[in-house]
Amino acid sequence: MPDVLPLDRRRLMALVASGAAATMLPGCATMTAASPRQTVWTFDRLADIGGIETRVEGAPGLIDSPFGRAVQFDGVDDALFIDQHPLAGAETFTFEALFRPDGGAFEQRWFHLAEEAPADQPPSQTRFLFEIRVVQDRWYLDAFTRGPGYNHTLIFPERLHPCGQWFHVAQTFDGVLYRAYVDGVLQGEHPVPFKPQGPGRASVGCRINRVNYFKGAVRQARFTHAALPPERFTRS
């Protein structure tokens, strides 16, 4: 697999200053009584993420990044599957990730949180997704959530970003508005009648049904049971 691509120094400094590159404790961190529940997944290994054993498919590899080790995916058949839905039960939420898209196919569904239905019921379609669309050497964000009574995409073809650089992305819900951000900059928002999702599992590097594989790298994700403002993104 190729070496890590160079990161623009000004963007790196901005990420560090904003806290997007902050190092956080792995696993589930329940803070003080006044703080929301948070789970952090750091992708610095393959065998387990956040203390949860992974199922590895393809041959994802570990690389060095400006923020520490990260997992690189080839866009063909590399993926990690994790038996946890960290936002299950959340009435409001913040779903963040630090990643580097490296071009590849137009549609890439690279981080999927899926509710699982009981064995005696039809498969659940309730989910969160981080996706990108790649246009030549640039990409734009697609954030998606679906559940009973809601089904909404926040997608912004006019907001293009360069491939080969590290970005922080986030989607949030504050009880009324569903929002998406890139590097702390609001991409768009829309009211959504969101309802909490049930327990389930996650895939990283592809959609959970093994399509739309991701070409790039993922360093970290954080899941908060509250809507955080951008100035609190990716801080412990």
Topology:
Elements: H1 9-18, E1 27-30, E2 37-42, E3 48-49, E4 52-57, E5 61-65, E6 68-74, E7 79-82, E8 93-101, E9 107-115, E10 127-135, E11 138-147, E12 150-155, E13 161-162, E14 167-173, E15 177-182, E16 185-191, E17 200-204, E18 215-224
Antiparallel strand pairs: 1-2, 2-18, 3-4, 4-7, 5-6, 6-18, 7-17, 8-14, 8-18, 9-10, 9-17, 10-11, 11-12, 11-13, 14-15, 15-16
N-to-C order of helices and strands = HEEEEEEEEEEEEEEEEEE
Structural class, from helix and strand content? mainly beta
Domains (count)? 1
> Strand-residue fraction?
over 45%
Please compute the radius of gyration using only Cα atoms: 16 Å
Main sheet overview: 9 strands, antiparallel
Helix content: under 10%
Give me the oligomer status.
single chain
Q: Tell me, what is the CATH class?
A: Mainly Beta
CATH architecture descriptor: Sandwich
The helix count comes to: 1
Q: At the third CATH level, what is the topology name?
A: Jelly Rolls
Shape: globular
Q: What are the low-pLDDT stretches, counting only 5+ consecutive residues below 50?
A: 1-10, 16-33
Distance between the termini: 32 Å
Number of strands: 18
Mean pLDDT: 89
